[in-house]
UniProtKB/TrEMBL annotation:
InterPro entries: Class-I_Pyr_Nuc-Dis_Oxidored, FAD/NAD-bd_sf, FAD/NAD-binding_dom, FAD/NAD-linked_Rdtase_dimer_sf, Lipoamide_DH, Pyr_nuc-diS_OxRdtase, Pyr_nucl-diS_OxRdtase_dimer, Pyr_OxRdtase_I_AS. Its cofactor is FAD. It comes from alpha proteobacterium IMCC14465. Residues 360-469 form the Pyridine nucleotide-disulphide oxidoreductase dimerisation domain. This is Dihydrolipoyl dehydrogenase. Belongs to the class-I pyridine nucleotide-disulfide oxidoreductase family. FAD binds at K56, T148, G149, S150, D326, M332, L333, A334, H335.
Amino acid sequence: MPNEVGEEFDLVVIGSGPGGYVCAIRAAQLGLRVACIDKRPSHGGTCLNIGCIPSKALLHASEVFTEVSHAGDMGIQLGKPKLDLPAMMTYKENGITGNTQGIDFLFKKNKVEALHGAAVIVAPGKVDVSLLDGGTRSLTTKNIVIATGSESTPLQGVEVDEKLVVSSTGALEFDAVPKHLLIVGAGIIGLELGSVWARLGAEVTVVEYLDRITPGVDEEVAKQFQRILQKQGFKFLLGKKVTEVKPLKASVKVTIEPAQSANESANKSDAEKETLSVDKVLVSIGRRPFTEGLGLESVGVQLDAAGRIETNGFKTNVDGIYAIGDVITGPMLAHKAEDEGVAVAEMLAGKPGHVNYDVIPGVIYTAPEVAWVGLNEEELNQQGVDYRIGKFPFMANGRAKVNNTTDGFVKILADAKTDRILGVHIVGPEAGNMIAEAAVAMEFGGSAEDLARTCHAHPTLTEAVKEAALAVEDRAIHM
Ligand SMILES: Cc1cc2nc3c(=O)[nH]c(=O)nc-3n(C[C@H](O)[C@H](O)[C@H](O)COP(=O)(O)OP(=O)(O)OC[C@H]3O[C@@H](n4cnc5c(N)ncnc54)[C@H](O)[C@@H]3O)c2cc1C
């Protein structure tokens, strides 16, 4: 009920990304009076507006563009496909609005009060909103959930103008295919966006500080993935760092040096430096939590050294203030944020909210895809766990063969004593969809034997998962 200070809610959620909007809907389903605020003109946060959804729209469209080029192999003569980039961008925009409008609908359906404006926490239980269309609202609430997400991490000394030097946001909006795109950072977002532009005709060079791509991904999978991307035309400069990015009129001059210079103490030898002239630079070195303008200092909410909101079971150090999603610790993934949103909503409604952080899948939506869940070999070795490996290549899978998508493999890591599945790692076609089976098996504490004894439809790519599970005991059939 409205009171003299403002309006009384059970829950005010700040940020309507996958963490915030899902939290708001679940809390409303459980009978709480909820408001959800976002300073963007459309709901859905990074994910729907400038992240998962637009990137997947362009990945899908560019993949179809590539596939059409190979349709002749299947007896379909289409001629050389012609790119209409503005139409592809409209397709992407339609995908965004289709999804963001879906959230407007869900908010209405669940009676979540949706506001567009910048929110400031003025005190525990009090949120002021500067509305986008003018004016302010003062909300009082029993609880606040902060779900303000993240932003691209800047590269020191490099200014992003979103034209010549771009973040992922600019790389989703190029008005022409760059002739040569240089990507700083061989992480997931950079490689996905690099794939889009490589498929559409760009030469793509990736500079990575480490001596490997996709840090955190099982090393064997990452190596295979790198080989596949190289076959697709990617050029990798590993163990290198970008030390200068100089935008010129219509190009960018980039200086690259070894990550660890042989002349670290002395002046760097010019022989170690190389310069490249490229059309565009994508800075993609990670994301950092976003809390600017929220008023956290004045209410005393604690951050950790990396700028994340410190939480214990989603509770901050201030009573009645919670935080979820990219703004707290853990993988910066939409589904992790969503699950946290559900968990905190259920906790606030007196239920036992829970997220199993051991079973959060990760996916790289390239072609082929890369997907994993659980621990990788490096992590198991670090922890001193005794494990067995079952591996099966798509080359030996009937469906992959007939589809001509034989690059990659499934790798299952199972406890040597108990056979419990500890991790599943896939590089190959449809890996992102196939990892769900492994996640379910792991959620139920399943063993490799459980997967191996589960009947899998033939002919499907999922048979490679079953065969990898059989291979844990050296009894794969088709190898
Ligand atoms: C290019 C790209 C591709 C990605 N692809 C994937 C993918 O395929 N799969 C995946 O799982 N993840 C992907 N991600 C990551 C994913 O987008 C994030 O993990 C996810 O959006 C985090 O959700 P969140 O709810 O924590 O925050 P966000 O989605 O970042 O939402 C936070 C919202 O809070 C709002 N906000 C901030 N401060 C205030 C304030 N003071 N007042 C009001 N509103 C405020 C912001 O406007 C924003 O809309 C991708 C990210 C990028 C950039």
